[in-house]
Each structure stands twice: as C-alpha cells, then as structure tokens.
Recover the amino acids of this structure.
C-alpha cells in the first residue's frame, strides 16, 4: 500500500483525508448544535420549543458520533489503492490485486446487507472482487469512488447501476384522452 505523502494520492481515503472528513463533520455538528442551543435560550419560556431544541441537539450529537464511529471502524485496516494497471484492495485478511484489464464489468447491488457493494466481474462473468460496505458505504460513495478513480486513470470497464425509477406510465395521458372521448 502507498505509505508516503506522494503515494497517498492513489488511495481512495488516505488517513489524512479521513481525519479532515471527520473534522468537517464535527465542525458542522458544532455549528448545528450551537444553532439549537441559541434557539433553546431565545425560546426558553416556550416549553415545547425548549424540548424540541434539546431533542434536536441530542439527535445531532448522536448521529455525528455514530457516523464518526462507523467511518473509523469501516476504514480500520481497509484501503483501496488505484495503480495505473491494477486495483489493490487491502483488508484485515490480506491484499487482493486485480488487473484493470481483467475487469469487464462492475455492478452495484444492494438487495440485502450481504450483497450490498460494488461487484467486479471478468469477461466470463466470474467474480473478481466484492467491494462491500466496509470499503464503500453506499451507492453514492461508490459513484464518488469511481469518479475519483476515473480522474486518476482510465477505467476500461462499464458500470451497471440499479434502476431506481419505475418505467414511465402514461396513465395521466390516458385519463386525459378518456375525458376528451366522453365529452
């Protein structure tokens, strides 16, 4: 894995960037918390607003703490490195090196907790690697990772994303047509 500052540009989330990311989370949580505390003191005589302010402050502290703990646990001994010819995945059990030319397709899946992640396949549709939630937390992070990786090097494979939107229906048009026919 890349260890020097010069080599860290090849890492998806190097330690200094993770610290900066977590510091930013804490900074914005403090700002939001300060707004709720200010709101609490301004509306001190209004009991429902006071309780709402306290509740929102607790929720802010809770979600920020959980998010930081999840990030720290997720990144412990795990890293993705992009080289000009390979993708290197490091985890607690070891390292996997996948040649970029071997990857034919990447597919994001999120049907169950076990299947969530970016799946990398070769030309024969054999599984090369599964970048699970410990490496990429969700679809938006996977999209960010692939955008970052494409900024580093050329990725010679296509990515399949799940379709979130149902196919468009013309039921509104059909209702309009029926009204015109009956009038």
């Amino acid at each position: 894995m890349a260890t020097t500052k010069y080599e860290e540009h090849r890492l998806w989330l190097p330690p200094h960037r993770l610290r900066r990311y977590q510091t930013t989370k804490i900074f914005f949580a403090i700002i939001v918390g300060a707004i709720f505390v200010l709101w609490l003191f301004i509306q001190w005589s209004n009991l429902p607003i006071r309780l709402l302010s306290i509740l929102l402050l607790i929720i802010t502290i809770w979600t920020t703490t959980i998010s930081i703990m999840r990030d720290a646990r997720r990144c412990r001994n795990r890293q993705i490195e992009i080289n000009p010819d390979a993708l290197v995945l490091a985890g607690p059990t070891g390292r996997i090196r996948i040649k970029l030319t071997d990857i034919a397709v990447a597919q994001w899946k999120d049907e169950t907790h076990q299947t969530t992640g970016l799946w990398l396949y070769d030309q024969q549709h054999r599984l090369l690697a599964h970048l699970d939630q410990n490496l990429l937390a969700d679809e938006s992070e996977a999209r960010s990772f692939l955008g970052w990786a494409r900024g580093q090097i050329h990725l010679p494979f296509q990515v399949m994303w799940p379709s979130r939107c149902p196919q468009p229906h013309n039921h509104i048009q059909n209702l309009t047509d029926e009204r015109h026919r009956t009038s």
Remarks:
- Strands lie at 79-82, 86-91, 94-99, 105-109, 117-121, 127-131, 158-160.
- The longest helix spans residues 47-75.
- Residues 79-160 form a domain with the PH-domain like fold (CATH 2.30.29).
